[in-house]
Amino acid sequence: MQATRIIAIRHGETAWNVDARIQGHLDIPLNDIGLWQAERAGAALADERLDAIYSSDLQRALSTAQAVGQTTGCPVQPDAGLRERCFGSFEGRTFKEVEAEQPEQALRWRKRDPDFVPDGGGESLAMLRSRIQHTVDRLASQHMGGQIALVAHGGVMDMLYRLATRQDLQAPRTWELHNAAINRLLWTPEGLTLVGWGDVAHLQGQGVRDELLS
């Protein structure tokens, strides 16, 4: 059976990642480190043949995707189906702030309640899983026998891993979700299979990064 190869990349770092502030659907740009990470991811994938690059339409993902597009020559196609989980009124706050102000909701979030929806029009984990599964099926089915890149967010990467390994939504996370990490999966109509996860070898050259941090 033909399959679609997927390279899934989390966006580069943002200032809110550093502050552990909930981004959700808020459109936060990459910081200097994130821009460097995006460039490194693009360089690492320069020799890959891609039939398409699909990206969340939020700028932190789009900027990362564009770095991949520049080195591969493949245009970037924004797709709102790849957005981060919507956290409603939690967006812009840290978990500690949510815990202090809404302890009952914070507890349900921490326990990974699949049906918990944050106040203000957020998404539950079950809703996020359904959206990501539908989006991946829709995009990957258009490229059977080929290879595509999906550039998105930590919550999306987490859901891809769970879908590929058949892990429950409440299973404790034992895998990393590094910014600008390169992850590889295989898609068939039967679902996703994990090929490789959390490749950050392209981020090991610390010289430029250290200059940015100094």
TrEMBL record:
GO molecular function: fructose-2,6-bisphosphate 2-phosphatase activity
Residues holding substrate: 10-17, 60
This protein's UniProt keywords: Hydrolase
Residue positions of the active site: 11 (tele-phosphohistidine intermediate), 84 (proton donor/acceptor)
GO cellular component: cytosol
Pfam families, A to Z: His_Phos_1
Alphabetized InterPro entries for the sequence: His_Pase_superF_clade-1 (IPR013078), His_PPase_superfam (IPR029033), Phosphoglycerate_Mutase (IPR051695)
One of the GO BP terms on file: negative regulation of glycolytic process
Keyword Lipid biosynthesis recorded: no
Official protein name in the record: Phosphoglycerate mutase
Organism: Comamonas kerstersii
